[in-house]
Amino acid sequence: MRVVNIKSADHRLFEEAWKIYSYSFPLFERRNLEPQKRALSQSECSMDIFLTDEGDEVVGFMLFWEFDDSIYLEHFAVAENFRNGGIGGRMLDLFVESHKPKRVILDVDLPEDEISKRRIGFYERHGFFVNEERSHPHPNLNDPSAEYFELRIMSHGGKLSDNDYKQFRDRFVNVICLNL
Predict the structure, then answer these.
(1) Collapsing DSSP states into helix, strand and coil, what is residue 142?
(2) Which residue in 15, 53, 124, 151 could disulfide with 107, CB within 3.0 to 4.6 Å?
(3) Distance of alpha carbon 22 from its chain centroid, rounded?
(4) Does CATH place domain 2-179 in 3.40.630.30?
(5) Would you say 3 and 48 are in contact if contact means Cβ atoms under 8 Å apart?
(6) In whole angstroms, what is the distance from residue 3 CA to residue 58 CA?
(7) 28 near 142, Cβ under 8 Å?
(8) CA distances (Å), 44 to each of 16, 27, 76, 145, in order?
């Protein structure tokens, strides 16, 4: 797999990643196109697009926010035709390894159904820990005026300390949520 990092929606690979984004997440977990373009224009935000070794076929992407000591992995998706073959795990391991020593933080749905439990298990198998005691109210990305929903925080390499969590929430509210 090859990785191309993009910082703009003008990049030639963005359109294919946007298609995967559009069918991979429910509407309330997706930004509209213009807010997504604005987010990518921020210095902290970028997208890793994973390609096949043999060509330029997009395997998946990771949209993330990078700070001095941590990374918030906001969206991670694998193209439908590459799912269930271990590619997602390889992408995640490569991503975490390439950003060491920074801590990778992400959020997941509450473990209320089989799919969300399987997703949490996937991340746990790749070194992430559930921070059950950490409340994470998340805005509706498609309609920021709508009611917030609850997610769980997962962090790679161990649970977040009180200070780490406070720093994450401050950045989430004051940097990431400003780009809705």
Answers:
(1) coil
(2) 151
(3) 14
(4) yes
(5) yes
(6) 10
(7) yes
(8) 22, 24, 17, 24
Partners of 114 in the β-ladder: none
Residue 137 pairs in a beta bridge with 150
Angle between helices 33-40 and 14-24 (to 10 degrees): 120
The pLDDT tens digits for 128-145 are 999 988 878 888 888 878
Cβ contacts of residue 154 below 8 Å, gap of 6+?
105, 106, 107, 108, 120, 123, 124, 128, 129, 130, 131
Amino acid at site 168: F
Q: Is the pTM of this model over 0.90?
A: yes
- Domain definitions of the chain by residue range: 2-179
**Which residues are within 8 A (CB) of 68 and not within 5 positions of it... i.e. 6 or more apart?**
none
Give the whole-angstrom CA distance, residue 123 versus residue 42. 27
In whole angstroms, what is the distance from residue 137 CA to residue 140 CA? 10
Pair of tokens at residue 49: 């697009």
SS3 133: strand
The amino acid at 108: V
Stretch 164-177: mean pLDDT, rounded?
91
Measured CA distances, 168 to 105, 135, 147 (Å): 8, 12, 21
Residue pLDDT, tens place only, 33-78? 999 999 999 999 999 999 998 878 999 999 999 999 999 999 999 9
CA distances (Å), origin 154, targets 124, 125, 129, 134:
9, 12, 5, 9
